[in-house]
């Protein structure tokens, strides 16, 4: 159990000294808590010897009031140092984990870790914040107060001291048993919680598909199963935890009973002062109370340790730019040199080499799954290549931090994600310190200013999570406004007009025209008619670059691009037959 104190102090970092100061104050609080025992013993001795006076009562009363005040001040200082520090530490750790998550390779999020990450942020850190410092205080108080009490008792009468020491030794053995049970089952409980959160997220994110295929009951059953598993694990935790807890608490019942029996026996045999015996009868129940509470805390401590394990596991995942440096580049060409890449065992790109000149337009064309989007993701370093190198501005992206690379890149993809926030704040993701006039100017260029002003609160309108309260075309234009505001020299564009209606397509095409002026542009093309003017077109097939040239050059080659173009012409006359 003491190990949790060390881990919390490590988590606190520079703030650990404030918690240590609280520990020191806790020692004095523990001493103050035992002073009433001495006062009671003093007054009992006076009463038994029939020598108590009014002056004795005043002395005991004044000291008692002083002790109450000192304990209150000590407790206030302990809470101030510990609780305040705990809130600051957890607030800081939330920001740190947010910064770390954006620097992890995207593969981490596609390997079943979403539920785990969500559990850490929404559950584990909250549990640590609400319980860690409070639990820490009780652990320290439990050990210190009991040690002081047993020490004082041993000094006053070694026989009572031996009984109390034996009781504490038995209790420590019982506490270790509780901790073993809690350690094993708390890990299983946290794992079940992680799976449950993952299932709920999957259900909520896919609710449209689930409802459209009338699979609500089937998918709900999967969540029900996870809830039942979590329930069963939690019940099993309680069942396994309670028997050793009962044994632990029985140690104190045994110690208290033996103390009362022994003190009474010694007093009636006149080997123990009657006043001391009366004091023992009064305070023996309070003596073990702080240490007794540690048993009930064991479950919380083990859950906290499991939470810290999951949190630290995320911190131990190597960030993608660990060795990167903040490098400022002054030209913005892109070059792939013999690049090979695979998602786990599935090879996607095979020894691809090409160059995108600065302020030019390069289009990527190919069948679905050929590697077009992978090229864009590798350029932004969402993943790292297994072979070869990618240069941006003549610098290997592996030599740069993610921030120094991505500040030069804007991305506009088909699937736009907007946050549950105001439209203004969503657009300012592109430039946090942008003035309102800059935002409005970007929105006018993106052809979204007019529809924003028609909303009830204009730019202060709060949109649903994922942009659910806006149409696809409106979301797309807001994402383009965000990119225009960022004004990055490199644009990665997954053709934004592929899944919108003709009216929105016209607006979005005009917005894109504003976005890409004087930029280095890489377009993932779905409609070949939109890339006829590209400076170069790269045809990707099965992870390889098979053709490269302008639209006219590729049509003359009679290769795959020519086939795509012919199919596109035929598709224009396609219609549904009754």
Portion in beta strands: 5-15%
Distance between the termini: 74 Å
Secondary-structure element series: HHHHHHHHHHEEEHEEHEHHHHEHEEEHH
Quote the average pLDDT.
81
What is the β-strand count? 10
Could you explain how this protein is built, in words?
The chain has a domain at 2-316: ABC transporter transmembrane region fold, CATH 1.20.1560. It has a six-stranded mixed beta sheet, sandwiched between helices. A four-stranded antiparallel beta sheet has the order 2-1-4-5, covered by helices on one side. The protein is built from 19 helices and ten strands. Helix 5 (114-156) runs antiparallel to helix 6, helix 6 runs parallel beside helix 10 and helix 8 (216-268) runs antiparallel to helix 10 (289-316). The model has no long low-confidence stretch (mean pLDDT 81). The longest helix has 53 residues, at 216-268. Helix content is 64%, strand content 11%. Strand 4 (387-392) and strand 5 (395-396) form a beta hairpin. With 578 residues, the protein is α/β, with parallel strands linked by helices. The radius of gyration is 35 Å and the shape is elongated.
């Amino acid at each position: 159990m003491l190990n949790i104190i060390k881990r919390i102090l490590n988590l606190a970092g520079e703030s650990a000294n404030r918690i240590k100061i609280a520990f020191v104050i806790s020692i004095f609080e523990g001493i103050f808590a035992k002073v009433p025992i001495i006062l009671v013993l003093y007054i009992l001795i006076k009463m038994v010897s029939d020598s108590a006076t009014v002056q004795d009562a005043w002395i005991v009363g004044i000291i008692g009031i002083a002790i109450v005040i000192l304990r209150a001040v000590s407790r206030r200082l302990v809470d101030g140092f510990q609780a305040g520090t705990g809130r600051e530490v957890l607030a800081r750790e939330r920001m740190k984990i947010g910064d770390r998550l954006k620097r992890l390779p995207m593969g981490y999020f596609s390997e079943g870790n979403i539920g785990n990450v969500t559990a850490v942020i929404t559950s584990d850190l909250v549990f640590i914040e609400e319980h860690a410092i409070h639990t820490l205080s009780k652990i320290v108080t439990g050990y210190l107060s009991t040690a002081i009490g047993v020490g004082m008792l041993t000094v006053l009468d070694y026989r009572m001291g031996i009984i109390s020491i034996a009781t504490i030794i038995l209790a420590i053995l019982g506490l270790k048993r509780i901790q073993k049970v809690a350690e094993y089952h708390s890990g299983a409980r946290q794992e079940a919680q992680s799976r449950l959160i993952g299932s709920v997220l999957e259900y909520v994110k896919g609710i449209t598909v689930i409802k459209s295929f009338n699979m609500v009951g089937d998918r709900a059953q999967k969540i029900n199963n996870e809830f039942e598993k979590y329930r069963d694990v939690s019940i099993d935790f309680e069942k396994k935890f309670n028997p050793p807890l009962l044994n632990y608490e029985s140690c104190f019942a045994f110690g208290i009973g033996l103390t009362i029996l022994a003190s009474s026996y010694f007093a009636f045999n006149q080997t123990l002062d009657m006043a001391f015996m009366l004091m023992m009868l009064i305070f023996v129940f309070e003596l073990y109370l702080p240490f007794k509470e540690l048993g009930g805390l064991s479950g919380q401590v083990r859950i906290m340790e499991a939470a810290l394990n999951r949190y630290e596991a995320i911190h131990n995942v190597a960030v993608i730019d660990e060795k990167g440096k903040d490098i400022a580049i002054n030209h913005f060409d892109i070059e792939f040199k013999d690049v090979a890449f695979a998602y786990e065992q599935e090879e996607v790109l095979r020894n691809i080499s090409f160059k995108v000149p600065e302020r030019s337009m390069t289009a990527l064309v190919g069948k679905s799954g050929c590697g077009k989007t992978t090229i864009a993701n590798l350029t932004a370093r969402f993943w790292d290549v297994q072979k070869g190198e990618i240069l941006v501005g003549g610098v290997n992206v592996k030599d740069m931090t993610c921030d120094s690379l991505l500040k030069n890149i804007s991305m506009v993809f088909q699937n736009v994600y907007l946050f549950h926030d105001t439209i203004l704040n969503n657009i300012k993701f592109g430039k946090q310190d942008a003035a309102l006039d800059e935002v409005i100017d970007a929105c006018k260029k993106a052809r979204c200013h007019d529809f924003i002003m028609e909303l009830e609160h204009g730019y202060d309108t709060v949109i649903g999570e994922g942009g659910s309260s806006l149409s696809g075309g409106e979301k797309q234009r807001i994402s383009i406004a965000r990119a225009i505001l960022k004004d990055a020299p490199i644009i990665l564009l997954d053709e934004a007009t592929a899944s919108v209606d003709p009216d929105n397509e016209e607006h979005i095409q005009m917005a894109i025209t504003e976005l890409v002026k004087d930029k280095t542009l890489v377009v993932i093309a779905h409609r070949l008619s939109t890339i006829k003017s590209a400076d170069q077109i790269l045809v990707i097939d099965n992870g390889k670059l098979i053709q490269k040239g302008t639209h006219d050059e590729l049509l003359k080659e009679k290769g795959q691009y020519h086939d795509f173009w012919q199919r596109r012409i035929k598709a224009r006359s396609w219609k549904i037959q009754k």
